[in-house]
């Protein structure tokens, strides 16, 4: 048995990393993990318990008891803006991050379904979770473009949107992700940067495949 191939895809919110990572996994027949959902699940657990995401003790407890096998990752509440903001808040807590390392590394080492590889997308996959990943992509785009994409995504879902507010919240989340003490969002030294500001999903995918092949 050869070790599974691991592809790390990191980047800020709405950079296109999720779309790209999912498509790479489908193309290559690899398993896919959106690691943001793990932080979102912890944030949502606090919201549903009526607690503040800034409640460190509760967040650490929620991360410690998090059971990926029992989680319903199709719950739409995981993907809303409130949960995303809560995820960004719990994600700065070192003990929360530590509690979620195991599930991510196990996924990379033993991709579900016996897949020959795994694609993980997040903020710190290439730097902290899988520093020995076979391929590392850092996907980014200008913040105005990312905010525009998020507005469209929310509108397509039928949510009421205030574009200026989406931009403001995205700036706040970027700041929190990039400046936190533990595992801040940053490209690994050996990552290839894919800037999607002027690329559609097909072009970003073609570029990523050319970097991998
Ligand atoms: O990618 P996303 O919007 O689902 O991520 C939600 C939050 O979780 C984001 O603010 C940063 C955090 N996160 C993280 O710190 N590390 C990861 N590997 C994935 C997400």
Largest sheet, described in full?
Answer: 5 strands, parallel
Q: Give Rg in angstroms.
A: 16 Å
Structural class call reads alpha/beta
Helical residues, percent: 40-55%
- Find the CATH superfamily: P-loop containing nucleotide triphosphate hydrolases
Describe this structure in words.
This protein is α/β, with parallel strands linked by helices and 213 residues long. The chain has one domain (5-212): Rossmann fold. It is built from 9 helices and 5 strands, in the order E-H-E-H-H-H-H-E-H-E-H-H-E-H. It is globular. Residues 13, 35-36, 39-40, 84, 87-88, 91, 122-124, 173, 177 line the site of 2'-deoxycytidine-5'-monophosphate (DC).
Short note summarizing the structure:
The protein has helices at residues 17-28, 36-48, 56-64, 81-90, 94-109, 125-129, 143-156, 163-179, 201-212, and strands at residues 5-10, 31-34, 117-122, 135-140, 192-195. With 213 residues, the protein is α/β, with parallel strands linked by helices. The chain is globular.
